Amino acid sequence: ESGPDKIDYVFKVVVIGDSAVGKTQLLSRFAKNEFCLDSKSTIGVEFQTRTVNINSKFVKAQIWDTAGQERGALGAMLVYDVTKRQSFDHVARWVEELRAHADNSIVIALIGNKADLADLRTVPTEDAVEFAENQGLYFFETSALSGENVDTAFRKLLEEIYNVI
Ligand code: GDP
Ligand code: MG
């Protein structure tokens, strides 16, 4: 799916959430299918891209991994860590942040990452499902480490953006 001659759409997406929840690793898993064991807190790269096919259109996702890039974003991945309750408790604040700084029509996916760490889980799936339903967000649990659900979550977000534009 990489490097088509013709791009039909470019969708700007932001990945937000508390520090260390796995934002950079999720992005690197989706864009390059890589998980980097010794990742630095933030590498110089500001965004990464991957082109996917949606309804026979080439959609280039331009995904930003830095705070403060909400303006003009069509979608947001709001990430928490299923092993860190505090990162889930902060999700409401991140939603407010998006509602304040992003376009009203922004599509938001709530992502519970590190689902591979089952023994360390402190955020039950049902809590997140309930929050997501109340707020009208899509919800997925993912693992950037194993890759579980990462493509599915990003694709769903891009498809929903495609459906609302
Ligand atoms: P960021 O600050 O939100 O960008 O978080 P990072 O992507 O830098 O990840 C923070 C730490 O969590 C790093 O040590 C990663 O290796 C680890 N990590 C990220 N995603 C996962 C995951 O899905 N599973 C596990 N077990 N560790 C992860
Ligand atoms: Mg990071």
From TrEMBL:
One of its GO terms (molecular function) is GTPase activity. Belongs to the small GTPase superfamily. Rab family. This is Ras-related protein RABA3 isoform X2. It comes from Sesamum indicum (Oriental sesame). The gene is LOC105173981.
